Q: What sequence folds into this?
């Protein structure tokens, strides 16, 4: 199952990142954020977790907010339909990754789990890169620095935090919490890059936060 989880993670990164070459960031982000729906439904049939109406209400509010956040930067890419399919595949792979992790983390320690899963995902992506003939050298020092930072911050810190939480809360709760990422990205862009958010981004961010509150708070009450 660890091998399955690593394969899902590799597919998520490979398909979602590649989608950005064919469609807009907005389209890609909106489609990737659909994964809480897949996770909630699959968790019901796989783990027997109840489907709360308020959970789906919260997911719907979050998705509406994601569309608003992306609306201001909506652009068609070179092949939007193919890019959309890749982004949707990334969402499905992320759902599989979190569901498998939820199962495994009940009996595996965090370091053991992420060592196997991250190593396999990295190996699979390296093999895919070599098979497709992409170069591994010749990039600028800044680019290599970004590679290292991507490995340390979003992967080791970000994904490891998600995998740690899977031992204590359901995969549905984790995916809903992830929907707060566009809000955090907008705030950081404002503070660091001086990119002030547009009105639609502010409204969309408010929707996302409200949706997370509805889905998680009401779910907690129902579980009690």
A:
């Amino acid at each position: 199952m660890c091998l399955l989880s690593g394969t899902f993670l590799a597919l998520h990164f490979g398909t979602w990142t590649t989608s950005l070459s064919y469609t807009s960031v907005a389209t890609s982000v909106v489609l990737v954020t659909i994964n809480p729906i897949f996770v909630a439904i699959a968790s019901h049939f796989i783990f027997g977790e109840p489907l709360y109406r308020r959970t789906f209400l919260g997911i719907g509010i979050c998705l509406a907010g994601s569309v608003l956040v992306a609306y201001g930067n909506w652009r068609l890419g070179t092949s939007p339909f193919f890019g959309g399919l890749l982004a949707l595949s990334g969402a499905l792979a992320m759902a599989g990754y979190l569901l498998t992790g939820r199962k495994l983390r009940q009996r595996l320690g965090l370091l053991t789990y992420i060592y196997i899963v991250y190593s396999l995902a990295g190996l699979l992506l390296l093999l895919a890169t070599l098979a497709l003939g992409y170069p591994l050298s010749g990039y600028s020092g800044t680019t290599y620095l970004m590679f290292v930072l991507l490995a340390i911050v979003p992967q080791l810190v970000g994904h490891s935090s998600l995998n740690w939480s899977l031992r204590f809360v359901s995969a549905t709760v984790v995916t809903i919490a992830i929907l707060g990422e566009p809000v955090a990205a907008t705030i950081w862009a404002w503070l660091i890059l001086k990119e002030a958010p547009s009105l639609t981004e502010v409204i969309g961010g408010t929707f996302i936060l409200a949706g997370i509150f509805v889905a998680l708070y009401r779910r907690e009450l129902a579980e009690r």
In short: The CA atoms of residues 128 and 143 lie 20 Å apart. The mean pLDDT is 84.
